[in-house]
UniProtKB/TrEMBL annotation:
InterPro entries: L-rhamnose-proton_sym_RhaT
NCBIfam families linked: PRK13499.1-4
Species of origin: Asticcacaulis taihuensis
Pfam families: RhaT (PF06379)
GO MF annotation list: rhamnose transmembrane transporter activity; symporter activity
This protein's UniProt keywords: Cell inner membrane, Cell membrane, Membrane, Sugar transport, Symport, Transmembrane, Transmembrane helix, Transport
Name used for this protein in its record: L-rhamnose-H+ transport protein
Amino acid sequence: MNPNPLLGVFFHWLGGLSSASFYVPYKRIRLWSWEIFWLTGGIFSWVLAPWIGAFIGSKDLINVLANTPVHTLLICYLCGAGWGFGGLTFGLTMRYLGLSLGMAVALGLTTVIGTLGPPIFQGTFGEVVAKYGSEYTFIGIAVVIAGIIIVALAGGAKEKQLANASGDANIPSRGEFDLKKGILIAVFSGVMSSFFSFGLAAGDPIRAATAAAGTGPLWVGLPVLCVVLAGGFTTNFVWCLYLILKNKSAGEWGGKTATVSDTRTPLLANYALAALGGTLWYFQFFFYTMGESQMGKFGFSSWTLHMASIILFSTLWGFALKEWKGTASRTQFLVWLGIGTLIISTVIIGIGNMLAA
């Protein structure tokens, strides 16, 4: 089966849509603390869905992983754990820098490092640059960064306008804004978040073994996710466990509420929504591995497409949920400009991959 970059871009867009949509079910969960619904959904995201997907989509999963060198498994696992630290500190970036600057620094770093880092560390960057069509791919990466900055600026303007309209300056206040601390945290978050890309790249021996076992090219990346996401689960589990012990919120799993109230916790609905949100989150990387398998010689560009599609569909969800209602026309023009820029970037990267193919 020859690579099909256009099909790969389509799969990456499906992954971006899944990632942008996973929090929608979480918003409907009632009377559960963040750590409770995050960990519950995370069990589906990082444990159940990856293993179920790999058992269904790949062949001889247990033997493939059992015969994988320990150092390969360890690198994939540790990269997943590092990515977990990046995700957990992203909120602090927004707190100390605000939406526009925080997103631009953290997501910009994640995009650049997660895209260019693996081929540099694997010693294949020179070969990539020399390939026909590579200039389109690198131009596309630059356009993605521009799109991220434009969307971030629009988001910052939106927060300010809505805060002024409500009389609540809930964007970092002068007391919370800390450029030095914020930049340090943003750099840490951006670098660590890119580790997921390194973990996927380190899983090449697992992909090769999976292919040798008879798995088709679209599905060879699924076993890698089992290992990388195990590391992500570890980081998030430890943090959620700390919050559960601190806030004494474990009883919420059984229906206990933090406040005295006649309102009963809708447990069945909460568990179903957490399962749906968690599974949607996993599907971003389910489709990512499928998209990566179709990108041919420039497979490293998958991370750029992934980040661009997440931001694109997250912004569109914001319009669907009326989060941009009440903002100035200039702000809405800015966000649509950012969306258009991200779409153009995926087209440019797709052209580069097609030329290489």
